[in-house]
Amino acid sequence: xxxxxxxxxxxxxxxxxxxxxxxxxxxxxxxxxxxxxxxxxxxxxxxxxxxxxxxxxxxxxxxxxxxxxxxxxxxxxxxxxxxxxxxxxxxxxxxxxxxxxxxxxxxxxxxxxxxxxxxxxxxxxxxxxxxxxxxxxxxxxxxxxxxxxxxxxxxxxxxxxxxxxxxxxxxxxxxxxxxxxxxxxxxxxxxxxxxxxxxxxxxxxxxxxxxxxxxxxxxxxxxxxxxxxxxxxxxxxxxxx
Length: 241
Ligand code: BV8
Prior knowledge:
Blueprint (H helix, E strand, L loop, with lengths): L1 H11 L3 E5 L24 H4 L2 H6 L1 H15 L6 H11 L5 E4 L5 H4 L5 E3 L2 E8 L5 E2 L1 H5 L11 E5 L8 H12 L3 E5 L18 E6 L11 E4 L2 H17 L1
Parallel strand pairs: 1-2, 1-7, 2-3, 7-8, 8-9
Antiparallel strand pairs: 4-5, 4-6
Helix pairs in contact: 1-9, 5-9
Bound molecules: ligand BV8.
């Protein structure tokens, strides 16, 4: 019922927005944050992923992000990412609003992507804001322009979200017939306010569907890769007619 229902809703929808979180990338080998094997199980995010950590604990901050960036090089998008790219190519998706910082949606071909929490693969100087090559950050260099601290273009705790990505996601979600939330605990503000902005149908695809307080029209418990493949099978079948 559930995967076929979602396929039908997608075919009936004139505007579908997908909101993804770290659970979209765990099948690629990237840990999420809050489940049993997540980053924050052993690390307090405030000590490595906040503005304070950048200002007061720069070596630890830099080591944490160098390790995150390094571990990305051994990971690849999975079939679920490819399905989402094919859905955009087939005109089934208006936007992917993502909390993920790995750029896997873009890497597999999605073009309409709003990065709500930035990314960890491009670097800027914290002082003068100028962009610098990733290698400078990985080699512990300082800013070549002003000798300031280098940092990834990720949204740290205590930083505001990129205005353009936020406005675009809010606008598209408010105008969507269907919003599909995939692989996120919806614990982080203000992204966790977005699902309630939908006036259309709201679907949650997640390993853990019990732990959220949002009103969803459809809950599909399972891994992103498996559920997306199941929904795509129904879409392929229906669209082939
Ligand atoms: C801001 C760093 C305002 C980047 C991240 C007290 C109460 C409430 C709110 C606050 C508070 N104190 C501070 C705040 C605000 C704070 C916040 O929300 N804190 C919370 C956590 C308490 N938010 C902020 O600071 C934001 N900024 O509010 O600014 C402001 C205004 C004016 C001036 C200045 C500031 C900025 C948000 C920070 C974004 N950066 N981390 C990084 O290193 O990545 S947040 C971090 O969590 C990640 O970036 C990630 O994007 C985000 C969300 O996590 P999820 O993607 O949901 O991942 P999670 O592990 O939680 O869940 C994964 C789910 O997937 C699980 O349910 C799991 O079961 C499921 N899953 C796993 N595998 C699969 C799966 N599902 C399906 N298939 C699978 N295979």
